[in-house]
Amino acid sequence: MSIPSRAALYLRVSTMRQAEVDLSIPDQRSQTASYCERQGWQVIAEYVEPGASAMDDQRPEFQRMIERASDDDRPFDVIVVHSFSRFFRDAFGLEMYIRRLAKYGVRLVSITQELGDDPSQVMMRQVIALFDEYQSRENAKHVLRAMKENARQGFYNGSRVPLGYTVADVEKRGHRTKKRLIIDPVEAETVRLIFKLYLNGEATSGPLGVKEIAKTLNTRGMRTRLGARFGVGPVHKILTNPIYIGEWRFNRRHAKTGREKPVTEIIAVEVASIIERAAFDEVQRTLVARNPRTTPPRVTTGPILLTGLAHCASCGSAMTMRSGTSKTGRVYRYYSCSAAARMGKTACKGRSIPMDKLDQLVTSHIADRLLVPDRITALLAEIVQKRAVAGGEVQDRIDQLSRQARAAEEKLRRLYALVEDGITDLDEVLKARLADIKADRDQAQSALDRIKSRSSTACIDRSKIERFGSLMRESITAGSVPFRKSYLRSLIDAVEVDDRVIRIHGSKTTLEQAIMAGDQPERRVRGFVRKWRSLGEAKRDTISPSKISTNQLGCFVSATMRCYHQQAFTNIF
Fold first, then answer.
1. Where is the active site (predicted)?
2. What percent of the chain has pLDDT over 90?
3. What pTM did the predictor assign?
4. Closest C-alpha to 350, from 176, 498, 518, 160
């Protein structure tokens, strides 16, 4: 008497919707169990995969079944499926796993496609697998096409809803309900708070980093959409998600690989915005500026005031904090040359200065010598004088562009008159000529508008200068170190520490841009680049660390102005 084969059933549906309806899985179970009973096989295991695609092997139950079939105790002899497409919809994957199972004496049997091991039947199985794969890819193509059209019409396709939004039914089309994303008033306040903390912070805390925002939210008991605590990842995703300015982008990535798709395949869906575009753009610029690949986090958020600013005059290396303890237990902290500390005196002779002393020198001299109305006015007067010298050349260029625009306009007027009077016909040659003249006119007009906007200068009154100086003096001398540090970095480019002098470097032009931020918020300067300014614009003065009251300090604003600092300036003007 032969021993009955031991069988394992594998039951699968492609989507969770099919699994929730609960029709296909019971039907597969009934038919495969009846088949095993007719064959005299004993069903000893059942593996159910609800809502999993068969285009790959990333299926927990499938992998568990394969691992069990490969065990040394040989638990079953055959795997029974309703059709080969239930097991795999990729021709290569199907053959690979069939051969892997064959090594352990396990066969794959389809109850609706009964095929043996004859070469012709093996070929037939492979042909069936190819058709299954083709059908799956065709279905996916048509489903994606329908989803893209649904997105073009502004409807929601069923992905995870971002924090701040919820789904609402808007209309019924046949048996399908169309949905849209709408703002959730409660969650939207959380999103606005995240952007506010990143741009401005709270009270005197200064702008917060991503990690500090997560801590703040968790301390207040706020949670994500899934009820979890906030972390760096979720907060960063919120700060960079364009949906909050009304730009929901569908079909951005390949579902399998996660790679970005071409821009032409991405569908832009308009939704209600939670954050203003200007604030969102500032956040993106600041995120780029604070990127650890651009600037180490300790430079912008560390507890040391001049980290990333103080440099050794001999070798140019950064001055980093060193500490020591005296016999009495008192702790001393110094700024010391990092090159000498890492590589010894062969790299640099090294120099040190007490941390408190250098911090006080820099902040007090900036507050007392630069951020006073008379000094700021004098610096701005130099800028105005330089612009006056270049004004003649700019005006010549404006006149030239104006003549070009007028000449093109006159040519167009004459050609239009010829056509209207019936002297000539509007043939292809004339159309091409009209297009060329229009292009010349538009190009000249565009250049003219651009040069006029760049050459315009605004008048800065005394009261605005005083308010600017007052705000900045308070910001760099009071509050927490990260808060003072962020404002200080907006005012100076580098602090060069020499044996007998300290040089503070910067640029004058950004001072004007900072003061005028309230009138011209769109004008920005490049950040984290120290050598970008033109020759003759930067100046240096020196101060003695031992004689504070008898030396002059020339300190000019650098090119490291942060966007959120300009926003702060805007708030007081």
1. 14 (o-(5'-phospho-dna)-serine intermediate)
2. 12
3. 0.46
4. 498
